[in-house]
Amino acid sequence: MLDDPDFSKKVKQEIDEQITAFLDEGLTPSHVDTHHHVHGFHQIFEALLETMDDHGIKAVRFSKQGYALLGREGIPIAAEAAQGMEEALRTRAISHPDLLIDPLVPFSLTEIPRGVTELMVHPSMGGDGWRQKDLEMLMDPLFMGTVRDEGIQLISFSELASSRSPLT
Predict the structure, then answer these.
(1) pLDDT tens readout for residues 102-151
(2) pLDDT category, 167, cuts 50, 70, 90?
(3) Domains plus CATH for the chain?
């Protein structure tokens, strides 16, 4: 299905329609990502980047390590493919985190490397239990104390796109 040129055209059209609908509401996107990280598939990634170019959107969620999913098969990205995807982002001057941390996988704030790291969270009061855990983690004084003690600067995707040269 991903190799079908008609499918790729339909995907690009759908992406364009969704971004256009968002913009038509008078909203300004800080970045683009996709449901269940389907932009981890190369064909969808390319369509997404083309549409981002068309609309002047300059930041995207990206994980060169691939994407883990709850209750579904993850989306692995081979090192060579990740390198090509990252080059496409640089060529288009699209900002992205250097590293993506998913709280589904244990991590330590004290071991985050230099650079820009996205901590991908979906905090919520209710609904899925993992969303509640994300909220509790973010509200935990120890967590925020570690953020402060480690000198971690919290920024938005808007700040990332405007303050960081994606070419470096």
Answers:
(1) 887 889 999 999 999 999 888 999 888 888 999 999 999 999 999 999 99
(2) very low
(3) 5-163 (3.20.20.370)
pTM score, two decimals? 0.84
Q: What is the DSSP string of the chain?
A: -TT-HHHHHHHHHHHHHHHHHHHHTT---S-B--GGGGGGSHHHHHHHHHHHHHHT--BB---TT-B--TTS--B---HHHHHHHHHHHHHTT-B--SEEE-TTS---GGGPPSS-EEE-----SSSSHHHHHHHHHHH-HHHHHHHHHTTPPP--HHHHHHHS-TT-
